[in-house]
């Protein structure tokens, strides 16, 4: 079990913060609660947590703005915890890079299980090796991917940083080029809030990789089967 991690909870409902904090601490984590976005932003400047659990309905800002900021400035896990249950909100949250979306009301034990799933994936990404050399990078098409920093770079100087969930999907494709991978294979142990998570994250990856994301060249959709990376991959 993943334990001993620092987790921020950003929610204006004091009772929910206490409930989530108590459950996380019962499983060995350290939890700190913040009741508005400004408090959380100040804390994030001082110390980077392993995971941030964010309510979308904050009193001083839209929680999605905080999610966007975390994706731009801080490599940390992100879980959205919200009373907004509409599909557009879920899709937007995952498109911005959140690792999971949990709707209120929720089971505290399920929330901790989802949090631990995110933390396990992040630990796996941090220690994952390819062959005997963990520093190997992947060259494919016009791109180079460094699994140590989750960074994509091309010859034109463009760099893109992937979220942990996006990087996991890309690595699966890079390890099986020119093979169709089903959504179930790409999902792995991910406990997503809804079954379109792979499609949403694939859309994010394509926006970073493809010159024309609506007509992708590198990652093709094989309708009814899954996705396929269409080019060769060189690890070096």
Automatic annotation (TrEMBL):
Entry keyword Lipid metabolism: no
Any Pfam family from its record, for instance, is: Trans_reg_C
Which residues are in the OmpR/PhoB-type domain?
135-231
User: For the Response regulatory domain, which residue ranges apply?
Assistant: 6-119
Name the UniProt key words of this record, in alphabetical order: DNA-binding, Phosphoprotein, Transcription, Transcription regulation, Two-component regulatory system
Known InterPro entries for this protein?
Answer: CheY-like_superfamily, OmpR/PhoB-type_DNA-bd, Sig_transdc_resp-reg_C-effctor, Sig_transdc_resp-reg_receiver, WalR-like, WH-like_DNA-bd_sf
Superkingdom as given in the UniProt entry: Bacteria
DNA-binding region, residue intervals: 135-231
Checking CDD domains in the record gives: trans_reg_C (cd00383)
Positions of modified residues (4-aspartylphosphate): 55
| Protein name from the UniProt record | Response regulator transcription factor
**Keyword Transport recorded:** no
């Amino acid at each position: 079990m993943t334990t001993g991690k620092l987790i921020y909870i950003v929610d204006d409902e004091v009772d929910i913060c206490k409930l989530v904090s108590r459950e996380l601490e019962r499983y060995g984590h350290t939890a700190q609660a913040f009741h508005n976005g400004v408090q959380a932003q100040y804390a994030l400047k001082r110390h980077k947590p392993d995971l941030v659990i964010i309510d979308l309905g904050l009193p001083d800002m839209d929680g999605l703005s905080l999610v966007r900021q975390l994706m731009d400035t801080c490599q940390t896990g992100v879980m959205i915890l919200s009373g907004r249950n509409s599909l557009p909100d879920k899709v937007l949250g995952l498109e911005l890079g959140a690792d999971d979306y949990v709707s209120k009301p929720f089971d505290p034990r399920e929330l901790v299980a989802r949090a631990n799933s995110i933390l396990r994936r992040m630990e796996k990404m941090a220690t994952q090796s390819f062959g005997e050399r963990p520093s190997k990078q992947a060259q494919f098409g016009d791109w180079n991917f460094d699994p140590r920093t989750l960074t994509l770079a091309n010859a034109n100087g463009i760099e893109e940083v992937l979220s942990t969930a996006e990087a996991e999907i890309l690595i699966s494709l890079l390890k099986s080029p020119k093979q169709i991978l089903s959504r179930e294979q790409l999902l792995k142990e991910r406990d997503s809030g809804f079954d379109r998570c792979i499609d949403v994250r694939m859309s994010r990856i394509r926006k970073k990789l493809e010159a024309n994301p609506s007509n992708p060249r590198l990652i093709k959709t094989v309708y009814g089967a899954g996705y396929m990376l269409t080019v060769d991959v060189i690890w070096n």
